[in-house]
Specification:
By secondary structure, the chain is mainly beta. The chain has one domain. The protein contains 2 helices and 16 strands. The strands form 2 sheets. An 8-stranded antiparallel β-barrel has the order 4-6-7-10-11-14-15-16. A hairpin with a 4-residue loop joins strand 6 and strand 7. The longest helix has 11 residues. It is globular. The N and C termini lie far apart (44 Å). The relative contact order is 0.25.
């Protein structure tokens, strides 16, 4: 099938719907996102916090009190992100391997998207297939609170810093179009220039999630009843 100018415009029009893959938090994206108690901007975690202590301990960053189960402590490398699109469009997305997640038992958390591999998405709208890839860049920092168990709810507390988070989005069908090129997440969501039917989450990884630690595998899934922004599967690095 030949790609026409009308097809390209239709694809871009789909992306103008507005980002629908956001988490249910009241957080703002792009700079610092409040995900709980108010507080100052998180200065950002650096390096890989140690994960050798047992049980849970408390810590403070970004104005929030944190605590994380011992099974979460350490550095994790993403195998993939998988999910299904729903709402005005239907489809699937998968990819994202290489993303690094570091958590200490005090809840201090960093997500490093520098090594992230692209996520491939495909969805259907008005009988037309829309396909492409996206990837994040930069780092996200904050503090989380969890129970001491190997499974439960992971909840950011204090502020979450999304100020260096960027996104690159490429359409491959019905037209080859770069929609966003290392665009800050605040600009991406603020201009309404890009929507992938819910595949691109404005608050990736570091948001309220259901976690499940099973040996060297960690899964972060959307809370029950929330939008399907995908399940991240990590392996202990």
């Amino acid at each position: 099938m030949r790609t026409t100018g009308k097809a390209a415009l239709a694809a871009i029009a789909v992306f103008s719907i507005g980002l629908t893959g956001c988490s249910g938090d009241d957080a703002k994206t792009g700079t610092t996102a409040s995900a709980g108690a108010s507080g100052s901007t998180s200065g950002g975690a650096s390096g890989a916090p140690g994960g050798g202590s047992s049980g849970s301990s408390t810590g403070t960053t970004g104005g929030g009190q944190g605590t994380a189960a011992s099974c979460l402590a350490g550095t994790w490398k993403a195998d993939n992100l998988t999910g299904k699109l729903s709402g005005p469009v239907t489809g699937t997305f998968t990819g994202g391997g290489g993303t690094l997640l570091t958590i200490d038992t005090g809840g201090k958390t960093q997500v490093d998207f520098g090594p992230m591999q692209p996520v491939t998405f495909t969805f259907s709208v008005s009988g037309n297939d829309v396909k492409g890839t996206f990837s994040y860049g930069g780092k996200v920092n904050g503090t989380v609170k969890t129970p001491a168990s190997n499974a439960g709810t992971l909840d950011p507390t204090g502020t979450v810093d999304f100020s260096t988070l960027t996104v690159t989005v490429d359409l491959t069908a019905p037209a080859a179009v770069r929609v966003a090129d290392k665009m800050s997440i605040s600009e991406f969501t603020g201009t309404g220039s890009a929507d992938t039917g819910g595949a691109v989450d404005a608050q990736p990884v570091l948001k309220k999630s259901q976690y499940d630690c099973n040996g060297n595998t960690l899964k972060l899934s959307p809370p029950q009843g929330g939008p399907d922004t995908g399940t991240w599967t990590f392996k202990k690095a």
